[in-house]
Amino acid sequence: MSYSGIKDKVAIVTGAGEGIGYAVVQLLVASGAKVILNDIDTDKANRATSEINLIHPGMCVPFPGDSGKISVINEMVDFALSNFGKVNFVVPNAGITLFGDFLKFTPDSFQKVMDLNLKGAFFLAQRAAKEMIKQGDRGSMVFMSSQVGIQAYQHLTAYGMTKAALRMMAKNLAYVLGKYKITANAVAPGATLTERTREEQPDYEGIWGKLNPNERVGTPEDIAKTVLFLLSEDASHINGQTIPVDGGWTVGGKYPEDL
Q1: Cβ atoms of residues 160 and 152 within 8 Å
Q2: 91-110 pLDDT tens trace
Q3: Which position among 145, 204, 225, 232 bears the catalytic label?
Q4: Going by DSSP bridges, is the β-strand pair 60-64/10-13 parallel, antiparallel, or unpaired?
Q5: Distance (Å) of CA 148 to CA 41, 165, 199, 247, 251
Q6: Structure confidence at residue 172 (pLDDT)
Q7: Annotated catalytic, 4?
Q8: Cα–Cα–Cα angle for 91, 74, 135, nearest 5°?
């Protein structure tokens, strides 16, 4: 897979120790980008980085930490600048899914979802945008929304709110940052088979394969390929958009209860 404008760029990808974030890092590095790989789990961040550097030595550097914290965000951007001298791409992929009955959802749970899914993405984008503007070079951001940010889903009110908000953030930043040659878009994954979803629902693949119009679940690589395209120069005139990568679920899928 080859897109223009990826080679020799520097990217920050959060929540990338496994799953979709890890797949995004793999494609970026394979395309010639240098990547700061963040994950809240130090072991996962280090292991993922080591695996990638076995194939592409020196192209990936780990930065463990909670990317929902402003101090960690600033340290991470500073780390990218000290290691690679610039920041061109950010993918605020880190997020948390908390299921809960709306009538029983607690303030603590609500704040936890908001801090990582929204505050982390907002302030990473803000800090990175300041650096991109200083550099005077093309920049790009891709936010990780969700099918649940497009259609309602049982017990995911707070989570769905954050994912819908990320779509609006992409729209607003396209308007605000476009004059600086910075694009902002979002990807909305559908049912995707990752380590986390497999753990949450052992028959995840079987259930969602029946619910999706194309009769299969997504893979992390499905999402990562779209992210890579949106970061590239080939997508430089796509701005403020959300692309669902969901096998058609948001246009005609069913819910597990329908089975």
Answers
A1: yes
A2: 999 999 889 999 999 999 99
A3: 145
A4: unpaired
A5: 25, 11, 19, 14, 12
A6: 98
A7: no
A8: 70
Buried b (16+ CB within 10 A) or exposed e, 132-161: beeeeebbbbbbbbbbbbbbebeebbbbbb
Amino acid at 71: S
CA–CA separation, 32 vs 232, rounded Å? Answer: 12
Q: Which of 163, 204, 225, 232 is catalytic?
A: 163
Token pair belonging to 3: 């897109």
Task: Please calculate the CA angle 214-216-218 and round it to the nearest 5 degrees.
Answer: 105
Q: Which one of 9, 31, 67, 159 is the catalytic residue?
A: 159
Q: Check if 204 is active-site.
A: no
Q: Do the beta carbons of residue 204 and residue 161 sit within 8 Å?
A: no
pTM over 0.85: yes
The rounded distance, in Å, linking the Cα atoms of 59 and 10 is: 10
Residue range 189-247, pLDDT digits in tens: 998 888 877 777 778 888 888 888 999 999 999 999 999 999 999 999 999 999 999 99
Q: Per-residue b/e over 120-129, b at no fewer than 16 CB within 10 Å? A: bbbbbbebbb
Q: 159 catalytic, yes or no? A: yes
d(CA 167, CA 178): 16
The C-alpha atoms of residue 28 and residue 36 are separated, in whole angstroms, by: 11
The secondary structure of 218-238 as a DSSP string is B-HHHHHHHHHHHHSGGGTT-
Identify whether the C-beta of residue 90 lies closer than 8 Å to the C-beta of residue 128: yes
